[in-house]
């Protein structure tokens, strides 16, 4: 979310929280990407705010409620307010339980793998309509093909990304997190918790594992390593494409896009 939009987005979250009886005199920005995550104080709730036209918050709420009931390792909704999407001033706001993160060492790969395996187990027990990973891949393909959306992408790099994104996705489908990278994993005193469920989709578990550090895939049971390698290069092509979107707001995104293109060339070479 652009810096110019932040004051209005924060104001919408704070005013809604006040109407719901949550004391919110201060707001700390925890994460800012396509939506902004705020820690509201002193009520200690996490608010997620996105422009109304860009959000799919109800989808995320529905999945979170089902996964919480299934006992999955996610950071769930705040129980003090009705679990729904609140709208104000052109922004959609949802309220989530805030979890203090544990300090110390990085997440152990074995713990990461165990938590993701447990999340996948819970996901197999719920019924929810979700897009397929190929739908997300198609969005990246559209960006590559639409030159006015990716004007700075060189033609040779455009052809490289297109060739990778056209590859089929094999494997057994199930509900996935969609982007269980380290930025979407909280290390809490009670264990690891996954956040940001708006990316949930259907596909093979190897697609999820492709977002995690390589050591995690080595410890996840029953992985098809060949498929995992295919998914890793596919995911790398997807996130590289997003960094070349003219509207991308990811910090230092263009530099990362160049680095990742080099990785793809080295892998393909």
From TrEMBL:
It comes from the Bacteria. Signal peptide: none annotated. Pfam families: APH. Residues 55-215 form the Aminoglycoside phosphotransferase domain. This is Aminoglycoside phosphotransferase. It comes from Winogradskya consettensis.
